[in-house]
From TrEMBL:
The lineage of its organism: Eukaryota, Fungi, Fungi incertae sedis, Mucoromycota, Glomeromycotina. This is 14139_t:CDS:1. It comes from the Eukaryota.
Length: 313
């Protein structure tokens, strides 16, 4: 999906899943509407009129996320917070150019295993969800042990204006990445698939391994929130989102990021001027994770994953 210069796509085997739309007034989603603030002072907002869905192609298939912000620059960086089924690994993705980055998993609390995103069958329960998911809470600070952000059967990205912060070693976080059990109800009936986190022992990037925090949001209010829900094809057909009798291609051609309208330029007094590449800042660059949208753009495209500053939580 692309909304006012912010983008989010779901990919399987490097192919983008086709998106389907349903007006938000037809169905109350677990996440609420996607939206973009059109000004730094948040007095103008563009709410998406539709819920966005993708069809799960196959149980057990891994998926990845591609995302970006056309307003991201070195002087005006954006940090992105990712939630999948309400799970989060306490890292940010930093965007310092109008390119797209990708994530295919989270890092566990000890930062020695990568948990790949994988579609799986939903774990249903008749018990109260707060009892079932008590082991999935983070420091037992979740209200009723429910996900703090995002929703079940959904991928949610929060985009924030960012600024540079001091580098320091972060205290270890206490959390688990677990498949969430869902209470059987009329509202949850269509959520037949959820995300399993397939862990593999891997060496993380240096910033994650060393617990270094180099950027953080300017404030707690995101400038954009994007949601994509994933469902079985038969559910989308039953709801009339896909025309019955036509089995569509669940994949779509990759769309050029540069073709989408960016946000209006942020005014000079709203820019973040203290973000610079300096010798005392550690950036982790992985050019393989970036999609450069326009060959005419003569910038250094760089994507950085940084650890969330626990002091600011």
């Amino acid at each position: 999906m692309f909304l006012d210069g912010f983008s989010l796509e779901v990919l399987v085997n490097s192919s983008t899943l086709q998106e389907y739309r349903e007006p938000v007034y037809n169905y109350k989603s677990s996440t609420g509407s996607s939206y973009v603030h059109l000004s730094k002072k948040f007095e103008r907002i563009n709410n998406s009129p539709d819920n966005i869905y993708v069809a799960v192609p196959e149980i057990g298939s891994r998926f990845s996320l591609r995302f970006g912000a056309t307003i991201a620059t070195l002087a005006n960086p954006i940090v992105v917070e990712i939630f999948v089924d309400g799970n989060h690994d306490f890292t940010y993705d930093c965007l310092v150019a109008p390119a797209q980055a990708e994530r295919d998993g989270f890092w566990n609390a000890t930062r020695d295993k990568k948990a790949y995103f994988k579609f799986s069958k939903t774990l249903w329960t008749n018990d109260e969800i707060d009892k079932i998911n008590s082991s999935n809470s983070i420091d037992n600070n979740y209200t009723n042990n429910l996900p703090r952000k995002g929703g079940i059967g959904a991928i949610t990205l929060f985009f924030y204006l960012a600024r540079r912060t001091r580098i320091k070693n972060e205290a270890p976080f206490k959390f688990t990445l677990e498949k969430v059990a869902i209470t059987e109800s009329k509202e949850n009936k269509g959520i037949e698939f959820s995300t399993e986190f397939e862990e593999r022992s891997e060496s993380p990037p240096p910033d994650i391994k060393d617990g270094k925090c180099t950027m953080k949001p300017v404030d707690n209010s995101p400038i954009a929130v994007l949601n994509i829900h994933y469902r079985p094809m038969n559910w989308l057909i039953a709801r009339g989102i896909i025309e019955p009798g036509i089995y569509p291609n669940i994949f779509t051609d990759n769309v050029d990021f540069k073709d989408f309208r960016p946000l209006p330029s942020i005014k000079k007094d709203d820019t973040v001027n203290d973000v610079k590449l300096e010798d005392d800042v550690v950036f982790v660059t992985n050019s393989n994770n970036l999609t450069v949208p326009n060959k005419k753009v003569k910038q250094k495209y760089q994507e950085t994953i940084v650890i969330l500053d626990s002091d600011d939580e």
